[in-house]
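Lab meeting, item 3. Inverse folding demo.
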């Protein structure tokens, strides 16, 4: 499994939440109950997740705290990288159908979730990007630029193995972030999406491990 990804330190997480809590429009969050986390998820058996709340759902107007804000701000670029990784695989040839099928599910699930989270942030009058100084590459499970270049260059079975190893790490990071939101978040719709991410991505990790054993 590819271990060359950066992790978000507890200090960086705390700093991101503190800044989110100080941003205009985030007054419903309190420092001691805030924190970030998240990424996407699909069900390996049923295809792309359809449980993500709509951007027009009550979340847009409901109470939220700094943890909800940080979670959405961080998961948008986290999801975006997963979509990018999936797009890279879908452009390759001689890749097993099961792997390209998984890439398609991931892309189909995370694209709409990005739109949902962006809608939440706009509804809360919050920035859709993380505070200045907090790079997306510092989040749990994110691939480095070098990792992405390796995936782009790989072909065939080698690319399939690399993609699966990288996405397992990516999913594991998302689960950590989602569980942090479950502990510290306030908004019901954001918490529901976090639960779905944990459920779906834990199942996908098992699916990817099984696929790896066949390559």
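The presenter then showed the designed sequence:
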């Amino acid at each position: 499994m590819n271990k060359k990804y950066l992790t978000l330190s507890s200090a960086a997480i705390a700093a991101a939440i503190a800044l989110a809590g100080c941003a205009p429009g985030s007054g419903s969050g309190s420092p001691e109950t805030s924190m970030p986390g998240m990424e996407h998820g699909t069900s390996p058996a049923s295809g792309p997740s359809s449980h993500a709340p709509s951007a027009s759902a009550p979340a847009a107007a409901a109470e939220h705290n700094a943890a909800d804000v940080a979670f959405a701000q961080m998961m948008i670029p986290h999801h975006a990288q997963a979509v990018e990784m999936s797009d890279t695989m879908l452009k390759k040839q001689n890749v097993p159908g099961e792997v390209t099928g998984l890439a398609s599910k991931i892309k189909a699930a995370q694209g709409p979730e990005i739109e949902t989270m962006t809608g939440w942030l706009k509804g809360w009058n919050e920035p859709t990007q993380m505070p200045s100084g907090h790079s997306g590459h510092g989040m749990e499970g994110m691939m480095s630029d070098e990792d992405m270049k390796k995936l782009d260059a790989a072909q065939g079975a080698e690319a399939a193995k690399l993609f699966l190893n990288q996405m397992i790490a990516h999913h594991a990071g998302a689960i950590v972030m989602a569980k942090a939101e479950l502990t510290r978040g306030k908004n019901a719709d954001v918490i529901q999406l976090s639960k779905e991410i944990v459920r779906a991505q834990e199942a996908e990790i098992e699916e990817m491990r099984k696929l790896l054993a066949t390559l």
